[in-house]
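SEQUENCE-TO-STRUCTURE ENTRY
===========================
What this section holds: a protein sequence and its matching fold, both as plain text.
Tokens: labelled as protein backbone structure tokens, with as many entries as the chain has residues.
Question of interest: how does this chain fold, as expressed in backbone structure tokens?
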Amino acid sequence: MKPYIEQRVRDIAAYILETGATVRLAADKFKYSKSTVHKDMTERLWQLDRPLAGQVQAVLAKNKAERHLRGGAATLKKYRLLRARKKESAGG
């Protein structure tokens, strides 16, 4: 593995551990695709540092278990915003 890829994998892993970030948030932060970050965390990190990979995997598993809650909260926020806009445009 090339040194710059190893460094990227370690940097993203550290960020996920520090913040509890999802793959999507880490991808946005580091300006890589979600696919790249996912592959880095689920394949490449295991080759570099197994204990660190286990810790990151635990965070990713927690995020995966909670994703339905985040999705529901986002949908609720969306419809509340739409309802508020509709009230404003109706004049009341």
Remarks:
- Residues 50-90 form the longest helix (41 residues).
- The mean pLDDT is 93.
- The helical segments are 3-19, 23-30, 34-48, 50-90.
